[in-house]
Amino acid sequence: MYPTIENITIEMSTFCNAECVICPNSKLETRRKLHLMSLEDFENTLNLFPNLKTISLCGCYEPLLDSRLSQIFDIIKNINLNMKITMFIGNTLLNLT
Ligand code: SF4
Fold it and tell me: Is residue 49 in a domain?
């Protein structure tokens, strides 16, 4: 347990549909296999932080490619309904019309 930590960042996968020049993602693909964190591992990880206030879903991946996103939100909200969620996304998958 880590009771003093209030904010964490979790990289749920290594999947991304972009190749931004500022990002090491494409270069890392040769070293990192495509990987998805299981929902069980995700929930177990969150439960290590009983006073969590904010979770960031980011890293070298595109969160919107994860078809489990609503399940991920459900897990977060079941742990703490007031938890703030941030995501860094690439914008190519948003349809704002
Ligand atoms: S969208 Fe994000 S993760 Fe994907 S290549 Fe660009 S900066 Fe990296």
Answer: yes
- Does the beta carbon of 23 lie inside 6 Å of ligand 1? yes
Flag residues of the chain having pLDDT under 50.
Answer: none
H or E element in which residue 8 lies: strand 7-10
Structural domain boundaries enclosing 43: 7-87
Is this prediction's pTM over 0.70? yes
Residue 87: CB within 6 Å of ligand 1?
Answer: no
Distance CA 84, CA 54 (A): 5
Instruction: Report the residue among 62, 64, 91, 92 best suited for mutation to probe ligand 1: largest number of ligand atoms under 8 A from its CB.
Output: 62
Q: Considering its fold, how many domains does the chain have in total?
A: 1
Ligand 1 pocket residue status of 57, Cβ below 6 Å? no
Question: Is residue 92 in a domain?
Answer: no
Between CA 90 and CA 66 the distance in angstroms is: 13
Decide if 39 is inside a domain.
yes
